[in-house]
């Protein structure tokens, strides 16, 4: 193997899975940059690296250096030192301050910081307070750098190296060498495959118990992310064996170890097929069923609205309820747990308003909640009442480590109405049902035909299918909604029919369009032009506030990743930028939070806009509706661009306009309920861009993905 040392200059290509890149390496003794290929993405342009590998001649791209090992090294040139200091590894130093420090100390900067870091105060603009931060960060960075020398060769990024250090401290390398799979369990951003790559490179046997154990846990985790509460043992064994490339018979002992460690729960069945739940999942499912049954079996409040009361509310609201709507209202006062489900325009909002009025006339305390902030605000606006998120209602506390409302400190309410209930997963159901007093009633309002919750379980479907709750299914589209082609097409899609485009006179604007673009690359160009130019000009829409692209997948020409990159470029007007690995954030960017951050009170799926970029402190400030949150190197990885998001991430949200790419590239995700959910997110305008064949494929695929859950059975009280 040959060794090269130089500075990474330009990333020519990076694979979407982060495992392969093509970069230019500037080697001092060579006139032209060297093209290096391999796993380079743990580094970034501007860093000095040593690489080991072999030369090869590619018939298409010419001479390349295929790397087998890469290590980041401290830079020796003034320019390299500047870039190193300005990286997000050293808190308090941005590009401007880095230039001043190097101008003062020259090429000896790093040696001086090592030997006498207090001298940093000699640099103009660095007082005692900032110097203390820089010194502390430098000392920490020295330890992190030693860890990085080990981790970089295994493809671990800067951000993850910092997380590893903060979790394991100076013992990080020792911990990883002993059991690399701890990374997958303990560090956000490092999955099983990364940990397994490190394990294989450090000599862990493919059949080692630690590896088999980790593979089973990872497979259960993947199943949870797909919405399953458990996996049958035969399926878990099959999937894990395929992942690990071992025989299925080798996994039984690893499962026993996990059961002994209480990392999994195994439920036997009469049919002999064991169900394997991740830690805590079985108890949560049992609790959700137990708490709902408790509500159903407890006596409710005395009093029922009569016909005169209902007629009075109808007159006050200016509506005349249909027979099925009246049935839904009556069900709420006759059943302790009720479900109201229906598509857009079927009158769910009118029913909720009516229920609130009647309950308040009886003196009941009514609480309104929804899974997301946007859904809660919309619920409050349409009912004219206070509505909150379920988490806020249950008083989630980051510092106390959970919900503060529970059986011991129940909610002070007589009737809880939860909107967008298709988004509620089993964990959230267990918490909210457990926090209701026994006398209270629960109403779940949602659309059973939309995508199920992102979290595990299928609560709305399971409660309906259990047969133990009062259920009203609304199907009639009411007069005020009949004029909306969006509503009409949503129901057509739900019935498996092609959407229609309304006839229009030249120059007339309508609310539903389809734009044919058979080739994904052509669809990509049209979407970028639509969002950045045509829609703002024709409809007066703010592309950063009013328009949302909802894509079936992340990958491909019309996936989220490439559309986001193109639209960021289209909207960039100059100004400061913050680069984090392969990602870039600019002033004005539309961004989305990707995980629940209870301390900052921002949650998975919340969308905001970058309102400030501080390159010196490596910070962003993002406005989410009426509040602002600061992101730094510790939590910046929680943000992604959100000009385009997946349909799943849009649940509970509503937008003035939706652009929907439909391509056969996304064949695996083309489902009727996905198309239906995307269309129902729009208030005023839908534009479908892509191929008619992709739409037809989605309409044909009406099989809802099976989710492994036993909630319906437990609600019925059936035997295992």
UniProtKB/TrEMBL annotation:
Domain (AAA+ ATPase) ranges: 334-516
Every Helix-hairpin-helix DNA-binding motif class domain range: 87-104, 118-137, 182-201
Highest taxon, organism lineage: Bacteria
BP terms from Gene Ontology: DNA recombination; DNA repair
InterPro entries named in the record: AAA+_ATPase, Coronavir_polyprotein_1ab, Hlx-hairpin-Hlx_DNA-bd_motif, P-loop_NTPase, RecD2, RecD2-like_HHH, RecD2_N_OB, RecD2_SH13
GO molecular function terms attached to this record: 5'-3' DNA helicase activity; ATP binding; DNA binding; single-stranded DNA helicase activity
UniProt entry tagged with the keyword Disulfide bond: no
Pfam family, one: HHH_RecD2
CC annotations in GO: exodeoxyribonuclease V complex
Keyword annotations: ATP-binding, Helicase, Hydrolase, Nucleotide-binding
Entries under CDD domains matching the protein: DEXSc_RecD-like, SF1_C_RecD
Designated name of the protein: ATP-dependent RecD-like DNA helicase
Native source organism of the sequence: Lujinxingia vulgaris
């Amino acid at each position: 193997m040959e060794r090269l040392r130089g500075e990474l200059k330009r990333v020519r290509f990076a694979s979407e899975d982060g495992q392969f890149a093509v970069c230019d390496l500037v080697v001092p003794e060579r006139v032209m940059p060297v093209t290096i290929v391999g796993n380079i993405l743990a580094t970034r342009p501007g860093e000095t690296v040593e690489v080991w590998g072999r030369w090869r001649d590619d018939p298409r791209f010419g001479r390349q250096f295929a790397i087998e090992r890469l290590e980041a090294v401290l830079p020796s040139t003034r320019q390299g030192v500047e870039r190193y200091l300005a990286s997000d590894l050293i808190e308090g130093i941005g590009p401007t301050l880095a230039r001043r420090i190097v101008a003062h100390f020259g090429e000896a900067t790093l040696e001086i910081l090592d030997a006498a870091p207090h001298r940093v105060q000699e640099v103009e603009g660095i007082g005692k307070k900032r110097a203390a931060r820089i010194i502390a960060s430098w000392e920490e960075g020295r330890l992190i750098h030693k860890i990085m020398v080990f981790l970089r060769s295994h493809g671990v990024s800067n951000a993850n190296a910092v997380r590893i250090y903060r979790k394991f401290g100076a013992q990080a390398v020792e911990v990883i060498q002993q059991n690399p799979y701890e990374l997958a369990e303990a560090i956000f951003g490092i999955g099983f495959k990364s940990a397994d790559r490190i394990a294989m490179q450090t000599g862990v046997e493919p059949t080692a118990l630690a590896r088999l154990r980790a593979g089973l846990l990872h497979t259960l985790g993947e199943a949870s992310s797909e919405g399953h509460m458990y996996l049958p043992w035969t399926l878990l064994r099959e999937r894990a064996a395929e992942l690990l490339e071992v025989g299925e018979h080798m996994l039984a002992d690893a499962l026993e170890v996990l059961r002994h460690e209480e990392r999994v729960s195994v439920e036997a069945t009469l049919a002999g097929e064991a169900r394997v739940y991740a830690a805590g999942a079985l108890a949560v499912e049992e609790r959700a069923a137990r708490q709902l049954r408790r509500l159903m079996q407890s006596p409710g409040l005395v009093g029922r609205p009569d016909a005169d009361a209902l007629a009075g509310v109808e007159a006050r609201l200016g509506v005349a309820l249909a027979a099925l709507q009246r049935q839904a209202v009556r069900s709420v006062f006759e059943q302790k747990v009720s479900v109201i489900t229906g598509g857009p325009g079927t009158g769910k909002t009118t029913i909720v308003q009516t229920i609130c009025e009647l309950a308040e006339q009886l003196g009941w305390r009514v609480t309104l909640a929804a899974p997301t902030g946007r859904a809660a605000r919309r619920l409050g606006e349409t009912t004219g009442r206070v509505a909150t998120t379920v988490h806020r209602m249950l008083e989630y506390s980051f510092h106390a480590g959970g919900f503060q409302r529970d059986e011991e400190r129940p909610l002070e309410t007589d009737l809880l109405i939860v909107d967008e209930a298709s988004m509620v997963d089993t964990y959230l159901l267990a918490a909210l049902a457990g926090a209701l007093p026994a006398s209270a009633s629960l109403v779940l309002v949602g659309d059973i035909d939309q995508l199920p919750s992102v979290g595990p379980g299928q609560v709305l479907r399971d409660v309906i299918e259990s047969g133990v709750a009062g259920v009203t299914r609304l199907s009639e589209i009411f007069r005020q909604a009949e004029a909306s082609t969006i509503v009409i097409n949503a129901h057509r899609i739900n019935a498996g029919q092609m959407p229609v485009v309304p006839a229009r006179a030249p120059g007339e604007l309508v609310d539903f369009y389809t734009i044919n673009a058979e080739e994904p690359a052509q669809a990509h160009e049209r979407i970028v032009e639509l969002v950045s130019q045509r829609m703002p000009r024709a409809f007066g829409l703010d592309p950063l506030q009013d328009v949302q692209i909802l894509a079936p997948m992340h990958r491909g020409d019309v996936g989220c990743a490439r559309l986001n990159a193109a639209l960021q470029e289209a909207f960039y007007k100059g100004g400061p930028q913050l680069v984090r690995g392969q990602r870039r954030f600019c002033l004005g960017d539309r961004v989305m939070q990707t995980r629940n951050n209870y301390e900052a009170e921002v949650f998975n799926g919340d969308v905001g806009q970058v309102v400030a970029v501080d390159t010196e402190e490596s910070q962003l400030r993002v406005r989410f509706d009426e509040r602002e949150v600061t992101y730094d190197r510790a939590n910046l990885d929680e943000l992604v661009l959100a000009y385009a998001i997946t349909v799943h991430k849009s649940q509970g949200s509503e937008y003035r306009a939706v652009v929907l790419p439909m391509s056969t590239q996304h064949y695996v995700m083309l489902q009727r309920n996905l198309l239906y959910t995307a269309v129902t997110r729009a208030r005023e305008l839908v534009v479908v861009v892509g191929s008619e064949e992709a739409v037809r494929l989605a309409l044909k695929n009406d099989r809802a993905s099976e989710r492994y859950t036993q909630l319906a059975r437990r609600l019925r009280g059936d035997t295992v």
